[in-house]
Amino acid sequence: MQKTVIRLDNISLFDSHAHLDDPKFDADRDEIITSLKAKNVTNVINIGANIETSIDSVKLANKYPFIYAAIGVHPYDTNIITTADIETLKELALNKKVVAIGEIGLDYHMEELNKEEQKKWFIEQLNLASSLSLPVIIHDRDAHFDTLDIIKKHYSGKGVFHCFAGSVEMAQELIKMGFYLSFTGVCTFKNAKTVKEVIKIVPLDKFLIETDCPYLSPEPFRGTRNSPLNVYRIAETIALIKDISYEDVCKYSFDNTKKLFNIDDI
Fold it and tell me: For 31-48, how does the pLDDT look when each residue is reduced to its tens digit (9 = 90+)?
């Protein structure tokens, strides 16, 4: 018999990774954001991917009390980042709504991106996070070995691997290092076998949930624009995979997000 999940109406959901500043939300951004609480999405972290989107993330966080900001330069933009940009990030981090440096990391899927430049600026931003005592949000795509190697050599703080796509063995190593793992709508895909195996073994105090919107819409919304309104689908799926209650998934992921990002005002 197929398992089912009972979704309660008094649960708080925390989307730990969203890009609500994306142009795909230009037509209805405020409408989407103001509708979140009615769907139990009580908090969101909006993620910067370059200087412009980091500034926009801070603006969104300042506008909405329940939104927080992360600032950083994604590996896609490491070909244009400058030392002055690091100073800009440092200034943005003075805002009390900034809770992390991210998303930062390595992406070897895009072969045209220079790997050495990516490594250089990844290290620079890890150093920035350390100097500011802020956790990091890691982007790691097809670069598991180098990402781990750099973190081991250059970072000793807290952080999360967003949209985790590594092996069970890598997950176990990261957990031992104190990192959190975050899961997206990918976990709802039929062919996401490895992600589901990781979810089975991740401790309850070491996982977050996220939409990565407007990307990675979960089933049955795959192929449409994603938004924090869909974060419940990740929670439902994790509850089924771990054979625990939906309420527990929401509670643990919410508390874990608050703890990792040192958010004490909710």
Answer: 999 999 999 999 999 999
Q: Does residue 140 sit in helix, strand or coil?
A: strand
**Spatial distance between the Cα atoms of 81 and 75, rounded to a whole number of angstroms:** 10
- The separation between CA 12 and the C-alpha centre of its own chain, rounded to angstroms, equals 17
pLDDT in tens, 107-116: 999 888 899 9
Within 8 A by CB and 6+ apart from 83, the residues are none
Model confidence at 265, in pLDDT bands (50, 70, 90)?
confident
Check whether the bond before 103 is cis (ω within 30° of 0): yes
Distance (Å, rounded) from C-alpha 124 to C-alpha 135? 14
Q: Look at residues 200, 178, 166 and name the one whose alpha carbon lies nearest to residue 260.
A: 178
Looking up tokens 């590594």 gives 166
Q: How many CA atoms lie within 13 A of 85 on its CB side?
A: 21
